[in-house]
User: What shape does this take?
Amino acid sequence: MSEAKENGGGKASPSAHTRRRVLRAAFTAAVAVTGTTAVLHPIITAGESDAGKTGSGRSDAGSDRAGSAPAAAAGAFDEVYRGRRIQGVPTGTADAATTEGSPVVILIDGRQLHVMRRADGTYLSVANHYQPYATPLDTARGAVDVIGGAKLSLAGGAYHH
Amino acid sequence: MYTRQNQKNMTSAQRAKFVRAVLKLKSKGIYDDFVRIHGQYYVSDGDTGLRVGHMTPSFFPWHRRLILEFERKLQSVDSSVTLPYWDWTRDNAKTSSIWASDFLGGDGRRSDGQVMTGPFAYVNGNWPITVAVTDEKYLTRQFGRPDRPIGLPTKADLDKAIAESVYDTSPWNSTATTKGFRNRIEGWTVSETQGGLLHNRVHQWVGGHMTGATSPNDPVFWLHHAFIDLIWLRWQRKYPKSGYLPARPLAASDPQHGRVVSLNEPMPPWNTKPSEVMNLQNIYRYEEN
Assistant: This one.
């Protein structure tokens, strides 16, 4: 996961940077309450290495959310997949109005991947409108499979309902 | 009355005329309006609100109306042009003539999926992508989903779906409990590792833009949906007594009330009722060979 910090560094927009700091705080809370699980382990590693790189990264917003963070962080992720940094930022620490019922906001190299839910609980993203995925992580990976190295458009959310 | 041809039977002059008309709509900005409309009315069944285009009974009539509108725009440029269809059960090779450089162009290149051949290749200057979920300006494809290969649907797959005599059933969405012809053709009812079925699988097989929210960026979208329209017509002929369902507006107590369109309710953005497009044989017919 050491490549996560390199990949996430230069490209992200200022707002994505803020979200990342919030995300780190949420992960810290998750460690304190739930301990390390197989699912969370790589995420926490990435978060800690990123925090170490930038020094004091804790945000006020993150501290405020600490109480509810463990549950929300269950679907969270932060990894490098095929050269792209993919993150699931718990809803409530980012713009909840645009999450369409997803427990996380999905970011690819700091830009939001807009998603929709199916009636059976699966996910569709704007990158893949004809194939559902079971989890936000699968959705993010599936989007990278389709878009490759292309940057997500800031207008992406306008192109489904 | 005019005829929609199987694309494999088009002469090179017909191919050239079709391509010219599509490029003309693109240069006038009309083409991109269709890309936007398709995305705008894509409402998923896990979200609230009216679904007219996908995961819904009006999947067939809504797309019938959409491609008719597109065809009218093509004909405003050249009155002799009609929409061709792509029978992907037969022309299922990556080297089929549909992908030739005088028609739709070929597969995307390995490195970035960019289509490099034909009139819709960015490098040829007439097909910049402007309405998209990524910032790239070039059309992309990835035939067969190379990282987890899938094939195009077969005739057996299609026949099995057409054999379903009921048009659609409650809960009128994309879940596995929704039986009927419409949900089978739309193709939601399999796992992600296998890819979708039929309609969905074709979007996935072409890959690139065809996979996403702005799938009409790839002109093959129209040839795919012309065939989907022909499939509906074949089903209508096979089961003349099995009409569109739901026939009447759903009761207020139905969870899908206000979310799906019954036979005589209007479909935005044209306010066309499904009943108005059930039989368009006085407008066009399909050349079936």
In short: Residues 59-77 of chain B form the longest helix (19 residues). Residues 2-286 of chain B form a domain with the di-copper center containing domain from catechol oxidase fold (CATH 1.10.1280.10).
